Amino acid sequence: MLRRILIPACLLALLALGLPASAPAQSGAADAATPVQAENVRRMLAIREALEARRARIRDLLEQLDGADEGEQARIREQIGAHRETIRDLSTAFESIAVGGATLRDDAAADERPLEWHEELTQIARPLLNRLREATEKPRRVAELRTRIELYQQQLDVARRALASIAVYDREQVPAVVGEGLDAVAANWRERAQDVERSLDVARAELASLQASDGQILTTLGRVTGDFLLGSGLTLLLALLVGVSVWLALRSLQRLVRRWRRRTPSDAQAARIRLLLYSYHMLTMGLVTLAVLAVFYVRGDVLLLSLAIIALIMLVLGIWRFLPRYVQEARLLLNVGPVREGERVTWNGLPFQVATLNLYSELRNPDLDGVIRLPLSALTHLTSRPRTADAWFPSRPGDYVLLPDGSYGEVLAQTVEQVQLRIMGSIVHYPAAAYLNLGVRNLSREGFGVVVVFGIDYAHQAIALDRAPQGFRSGLEAAFAEAGFGDDLRSLVVEFKEAGASSLDYLIYATLAGGSAGSYFRIGRLIQQTCVDICNREGWVIPFTQVTIHQADGEPSDG
User: Fold this and answer.
1) Which residues contact 278 (CB under 8 A, 6 or more apart)?
2) For residue 490, which phi and psi values (nearest 5 degrees)?
3) In which band, very low, low, confident or very high, does the pLDDT at 557 lie, cut at 50, 70 and 90?
4) Rounded distance between C-alpha atoms, residue 143 and residue 147, angstroms
5) In the chain, how long is the greatest CA-to-CA distance?
């Protein structure tokens, strides 16, 4: 009961306190508006007087029309038409001042026009265009009024110069007929000057009215911001929340399915799973898009709905343009294209294995450090083949290689970009593709052989075919074992080669495993040293012509 009494009492008190405060404000507003209203009344009075004068002039011209000849009638009708057009302009100006420049756009006539198919498409963008037109209406109107004021000012100056030129003639000194003509011309130009001056005054008044509203920019901005936040802003927020919710729900469902299916699929199953996965992604995008459009539709926001439809149309047109490329990339993703997962492909002159096929695929070489990531568009021009026993690269880090120019080096590192070698104590870099095309000999991978030709004097011809070869062989086997190469020695051939010009020559050919590749030149020297030592122990004479080693012209010192 107490609440029912207090609430009406409080409302009455608030009304009583509010009335005195609002009354002075309204009075001040009326006082501030009085000069503006008085000026507008003065302008409207001038326009009404001009209207009456034009109507009276039309009545006079109509009376003159009956007694005039054909040429004069045409001139009079032209003047009547001009006066009537001026009356329409004056009436419009009077209404514009009375309503404060307010206008109502009538789009019904435009909407009733027959539209072609491309115009039907533009109907989607009509709300956006209307918003843009409304946003730029005031600046366009201000620019138009300034142009009109400048034109009226020029016309008024011309009219004043014309009247000044007519005033030069003295009526007392010119014939009466000329004077009457001058008076008629002067009256006509005075009317024109008055019309232009009146139009100039109206345009200035309308421009002042538009510029006076600039002081309310903060209020307008606040109102526009509030309308946006409660309208399109709230719709965007709701659409964002709905779209994110749908996306999270579908992602959670995908994680549940992936957690339920743990085992590694086969190649055929992987292709089907990849197809299902990308179909699911497309379904997710479609459902999120439909959810956002549904929010725009339910909220009735035509502007946002139009923008969304325009964006979708542009997206569809873009996809249609690049559809052939997308089809090729889709075939790659499904592992049914020219490049397939797990196969061998050549990229920039190097062999790679297709590790994964995805939006950014990975290419790897088992013998090279690093990985190549390529977009699907780069793989559409390649062709892969099933893996075979072909080597991925001619060497690995730690191998010893012999280059075509006779250089001997150790492979320190090799990546997908370059190979680093140590040659005679210096570090040398080769591009990986160029190194692959050099045709290097890898001494560490398949083993190597050393060929030495050693000769003894003809004085030992009696033992040249039996005792000498056996002595060299046994001595070399003992020397290899003592030097630590016995486990890597695969074969040792000591045979009589030929009777040279000054010596009996023997071919010594030793093959070793790749573990001894780091001592390639040392092994050649060891064979020479051992043969000389055997000759010294057996008393065999070595002729002046020395032994030759076929593999190397210059021998670096190695371990």
Assistant:
1) 330, 333
2) -90, -45
3) very low
4) 6
5) 163
| pTM (two decimals) | 0.48
**Mean pLDDT across the stretch 453-474?**
92
Question: Is 14 a residue whose pLDDT tops 70?
Answer: no
One-letter amino acid at 531 equals: C
Most confident of 126-135, 203-212, 412-421: 412-421
> Pick from 201, 208, 198: which is nearest to 36 by CA?
208
Calculate mean pLDDT across residues 368-391: 87
Helix (H) or strand (E) holding 441: strand 441-442
Q: Which of 86, 43, 44 is nearest to 61 (CA)?
A: 86
With CA atoms as reference, report the closest residue to 511 among 480, 555, 556: 480
β-strand partners of 346: 351
Minimum mean pLDDT among 209-223, 268-282, 344-358: which range? 209-223
Average pLDDT over residues 338-358: 89
Axis crossing angle, helix 176-212 with helix 137-167, rounded to the nearest 10: 160
- Is-contact 509 547, C-beta < 8 A? no
* pLDDT tens-digit readout, 402-455: 998 888 899 999 999 999 999 988 999 999 999 999 889 999 888 899 999 999
Question: Who contacts 94 (Cβ-Cβ below 8 Å, separation ≥6)?
Answer: 44, 47, 48, 51
119: which 2 tokens? 């115009």
Q: What is the pLDDT of residue 371?
A: 92
Distance CA 478, CA 6 (A): 124
Which residue, among 546, 425, 528, 541, has the nearest Cα to 475 in the 3D structure?
A: 528
Which residues have CB under 8 Å from 289's CB, separation 6+? 312
**254-272 per-position pLDDT tens digit:** 787 777 765 555 555 666 6
Return d(Cα 490, Cα 513) in angstroms, integer. Answer: 7
pLDDT at 121: 54
Residues 6+ apart with CB under 8 A from 293: 305, 308, 309
The two tokens of residue 425 are 């104590």
User: At a CB cut-off of 8 Å and minimum separation 6, what does 531 contact?
Assistant: 452, 454, 472, 475, 476, 508, 547
Q: Distance (Å, rounded) from C-alpha 53 to C-alpha 156? A: 20
Q: How far is CA 237 from the centre of its chain?
A: 26
Alpha-carbon distance 150 to 213, whole Å? 22
Rg (CA), the chain: 52
Q: How far apart are CA 409 and CA 420, in angstroms?
A: 10
- CA–CA distance, 185 with 72 (Å, rounded to integer): 16
Q: Among candidates 205, 16, 199, which has minimal Cα distance to 101?
A: 205
Does the structure show a pLDDT above 60 at 465? yes
β-strand pairing of 418-423 with 426-431: antiparallel
State residue 114's pLDDT score: 54
